[in-house]
Specification:
Elements: H1 2-7, H2 22-31, E1 39-42, E2 47-50, H3 52-63, H4 71-96, H5 103-123, E3 126-130, H6 135-146, E4 152-155, H7 169-180, E5 187-190, E6 193-196, H8 198-208, H9 210-220
Parallel strand pairs: 3-4
Antiparallel strand pairs: 1-2, 3-5, 5-6
């Protein structure tokens, strides 16, 4: 909790409520008998609350631009993303049927799917294409939830693996690749513009403020 307070550059007073201390007696009066620590008192919002996890969520929600995703998942992403992206780019069109004899049929399907995607990303301020079972997609959606903004989550299925992806999901994945060069999910669009995935797109855009610039420009134009 103290790490988060420091990270967010929040000025705070630390009171040690050790056994027998005046601060412990004070805490018992505030809580009605409990001495559970840590315990946060925020006079800015008249909030009193225990439990580290709940306090950390509260601090990020009230004092940060967004709640950051898992650091562990970020480390995993740095290793596997560069390895898997080239593979996904090859597999996505094949899974959608690019190797079929009737290429004209395939191209028509992808063209129609592209048109559908264009409609989706221009009809909503923020769109995230996702898989229900992907931890990266789950984290991206949690980050968007922490922003308290409007967004549309479009799931392509449980995962990209055959029998887990939705009907038409393979075509949509291939069409996303044809439109943007990215076939991995999550894939986030803001005001019709692709900003990429979670760690290589959404998080950097939030950190440098470009996400909010694009989002606000979309609001100002309406």
């Amino acid at each position: 909790m103290r790490e988060v307070l420091s990270e967010l550059d929040i000025t705070y007073e630390l009171r040690s409520a050790g056994k027998g201390s005046a601060q412990r007696q004070e805490l018992e009066k505030i809580t009605g008998g409990s001495t559970q620590c840590p315990f946060l008192i925020d006079p800015n919002t008249n909030t009193n609350m225990p439990e580290s996890k709940a306090i950390i969520e509260y601090l990020y929600k009230n004092y940060a631009k967004f709640t950051p995703p898992s650091e562990l998942l970020g480390s995993v992403s740095q290793v596997i993303t560069p390895l898997l992206k080239p593979i996904y780019k090859v597999i996505a069109p094949l899974q959608a049927g690019s190797n079929r004899e009737d290429m004209a049929e395939y191209e028509n399907e992808i063209a129609a799917t592209k048109a559908g995607i264009e409609k989706e990303i221009t009809s909503n301020k923020v769109v995230v294409y996702s898989y229900s079972l992907s931890p990266f997609c789950t984290e991206a959606i949690a980050v968007l939830d922490s922003l308290d903004i409007e967004y549309e989550n479009i799931s392509l299925g449980l995962e990209w693996i055959p029998f887990l992806i939705n009907e038409g999901g393979s075509q949509k994945r291939a069409a996303l690749g044809a439109l943007t060069g990215q076939t991995s999910l999550p894939h986030v669009f803001v005001a019709g513009k692709s900003i990429g995935g979670l760690y290589e797109g959404l998080i950097p855009a939030l950190e440098d403020g470009s996400f909010f610039d694009i989002y606000q420009s979309e609001n100002d134009s309406k």
